[in-house]
Amino acid sequence: MKIENQIRWVAKLAGIGAGLFCASFAQAELSVHHIELAVSQADTAKKWYQMHLPCRAVADRPMRMMCGGMQIELVARQSIGGSQGTSVNHISFSYPDVVAKMAALESIGVGGAGVRLQRFDDGSLTREDEGRGVHSFIFDPWGTRIELVQAPGDPVFNHVHLHSADPAAAKDWYVETLGATATAQGVDIGDIAFHISQNAEGRPAGTRERAIDHVALVADDVVATSSDIGTAGVKVRGPDSPANARGDAQRSLLAGPDGVRIAIVDSQWDGIAYDLGGQAVAEVVAIAEPFEMPRTPWGEPDIQGMWTGNAAHGIPLERPDDLAGQDLSSDQAAARREQGTLASIWGYEREWRDTTLGYDKFQASRQVALVVDPPEGKLPAITDLGEKALADAAARRLVIAAGPEDLSSWVRCITRGLPTMMMSGVYNNGLQIQQSPGYVAVQKEMIHETRLIPTTAKARPGIKQWLGSSRGRWEGDTLVVEVTDFNGRSKYRGAGENMKITERYRLVGADTLEYQFTVEDATIWETPWTGMFHFKRDEAQYELVEYACHEGNYGMTNILSAARAKDREINEPSGE
Amino acid sequence: MQRRLGLGLGLVLGIILTSGCATTTVTNSNAGDGIGSENSIPRAWDGHPDLNGIWQTLSTANWNLESHPAYGGLAEIGVLGATPPGVGVVEGGEIPYQDWARKKQQENFAKRFTNDTEAKCYLPGVPRAHYMPYPFQILQGDRKIMMVYGFAEANRTIHMDKENPVPAPIDSWMGRSHGRWDGDTLVVDAHGFNGEAWLDRAGNFHSYALKVEERFTPVNGNVLRYEVTMTDEETYTRPWKMSLLLYKNLDEAAEIFEFKCVEFSEDLLYQHLRRGTSAE
Predict the structure, then answer these.
(1) pLDDT digits (tens, 9 = 90+) for A218-268
(2) What is the CATH number of the domain that holds A197?
(3) For residues A259 and A88, is the Cβ–Cβ distance under 8 A?
(4) Contacts of B120 in chain A (CB under 8 A)
(5) Residue A356 included in any domain
(6) Cβ of B260 and A568 within 8 Å?
(7) In chain B, what percentage of residues exceed pLDDT 70?
């Protein structure tokens, strides 16, 4: 590998000429300036890092810490997910006695801004192996994964750990583009070690807006260095002095292998107040990946596969009132969504959300409302009957259940009903689509419900069912499904027997399935309305695990026995 | 209380006894029985037999896998609780249980109206899902084959495109299924069962150690021979085989309807927790 590198290097120098030679000369001067972490509570974060890691505050630099030889810069915003699963998987500090350090951290606990400790498969906190020696992992409360490795002397910063789909290629890139020095574990940039490991599951997520947002390198001449890197074929944004930067130092941004976000700053760089950075995100969202519509061997559009609605979890049905009529920047939209998911997973920890909903692998949707029509993102006006239905439903929820019939069909493991069953919940958002000539099967993981949808002209049975009767057709590459004949026992905001749902399934990228649903029930809403969200493909990792809901419905037993206890309490007031 | 119980049992039996369960029996004779020829087998786009369609058995296997004369059930519902007679589908006549297991099966039989997992609307498992008196649909795609059953929203995905992990990553009611073609036969290996599902209404059963090899072989366009080899060292003295026929439902209106039987099992499962019936 090393020899190959050298050959390539020499070939480049010889063949491409002086411009690149100068570039490589400039790049050799790069060293690490800081690592930027996104934290929602900057003051708490500064305390946390000083309490638990070898960090100290830096005078007159409110958002910067010096951590065992590494500058850590904090940016006060919520990340869209932890560092695990991204291409900058973790950062690492050395301690002379990792076991003792972990015991001290364990005694602190995880409550509030505590320390989360990663346990290995066997339950242990510390592991020793040939490559890493004695080591442990912890997480800060904002999602940055931190490795503790054992080394004598005072605690110091040890390394940055990159994950890559192709470590060899990534290593070449750092050597050739940034002038890094190849090492056994990866590369050195300046005097900081970057280890590069094979990512376990394909390509890791990019780091942009994750807990470890980027690594900043310092150059004597940002303009020249950025230009040189650009000449080598890497897309570079800037350099410029962002409007909200402290001071007028220059910065440019680029994406390294596997989406590692790298900043090049000059030595005067003093951070920015709040990184809006919306522009590039908007680009990412806007550019739909080019793809060719896949076809089944028998000629229908092929939407088969393993999909999940995880990225859409927590999108509010309606656009929040305070956002009416506003065009949100992508950052604002992301922050909104963050609030949405955090609020709707109740007391679960952020880390749980990130892993269970897969946010450590991909970005959460930035949609601010499911409703796309009416375009204001609000449901149409409801009828008097609609008002009454909502009030009745609210009243029913307060009843002490006499039996299972008083509980929702979801609690009973019967169905979530339509359109709810298609929407994303806190977990088990898998959606498997299977096709055979003339049929599409849509199977939702939660409660393991399968809808068999004929795409031929098949007469409706005229039987009322919980999920009605679905009849589909291909309109171009869009699967259009009309659902009628609901039994009305699993109402959606009061709509039941008279409801008609029209769904549209359409691939908008190789790995993105757009799902639109139009709901009509003139007895409830004055006009039809349409919701939309995306399912993301996840063939590599996801598989429907049997959701044997009813078979393990201990919740039902518990709810009913508690209800009987409540009955007794009411009928026979305790004590005297 | 007495009345309530009667109602409960009635509902349970509503699940057990489905409409139009035929009493025709099917013997174990092999495919050379003159009911079809290889030429009449429809082919899928890739030349393999086309198994798409809605299928159902005419056997009495779901009442009792072993040969059985007619016998009665619950007096309260008269003949509705009786079992129709049938020739067994087990090769050699009897399931080769270990001694303890045969005793257990007999205990199960005595408690069948309350303990059969079918009565509770639990997932039917494999192979039982294929010989219940409910239809199931095969969706034969180019990467996977899905089977969707008319009982308890059960389904299985047969991976034709994935490594078969042994052991399965997690145990489940329906197990994990991987398939391959052996000539015109779809061969499916299923394992990773939780061992909870009964095999029929007569209390026949297996353990978590069950490994199933199923062979779906078209006899003609409208008939599949379903052969199953059952290996479970915890329960049986040797592997054993069952064989039965599945018939295609040719009715244009045929469809797998919802049979969300949970609500019909609630009296059986939660009766003691209802207001007015618990020990108060």
Answers:
(1) 998 888 898 888 888 888 888 888 766 777 788 999 989 999 999 999 888
(2) 3.10.180.10
(3) no
(4) 551
(5) no
(6) no
(7) 85
